[in-house]
Amino acid sequence: MIVPLVLERLRPASVVDVGCGSGAWLEVFRECGVTDVVGVDGAYVRPESLRIEPAEFVACDLGERFRLERSFDLAISLEAAHYVPEERAGALVESIAALAPAVLFGAAVPHQPGGPARNRQWPAWWAARFARHGFRAVDWLRPLVWDDDRVDWWYAQNTILYLRDGGDTEPIRPLVHPGLLEEIASAAEPPPRRRFFRPQHRT
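Above: the chain's sequence. Below: its structure in token form.
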């Protein structure tokens, strides 16, 4: 659901995914007609797990500044940036901002469960860092997919569009999706108490 909306608005002919993992998002972009794709992630990603061609994958330490020898129409980085320590987040944003004039970005918010996250922040925190590189935040996608059951709640909750077009950044609200509340509440529920059967003794 997200990819068709992005294609309709931005019409990218080339897409780079920073923190791509196996390249699942790029696989969907390719299925939707974008043939020029590149994935960037750590060297720990196994070649046999890739859903893109090995030649389309670039191994980089996302905690360090990196440069690719080209630019793209669109950069995406979804649910990956929070694994980078806070003190290195600026370098990651700088590296992403240099790749494309449009960035679709999302990362875990405070108290969001899942994985060894090192830097859970509200979207406005990231928006301030993109603003330093001339990008404005546009809270365009979340209203479109918030109630769509086909979209995982973490994407619906966290994904913001950033555009390097000289406009003013919109206020980005720290929204919490019901799916997050349900997951936290389920994890906090105590296990059901076992009922012990006490046999009756006849006298």
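Residues 2-188 form a domain with the Rossmann fold fold (CATH 3.40.50.150).
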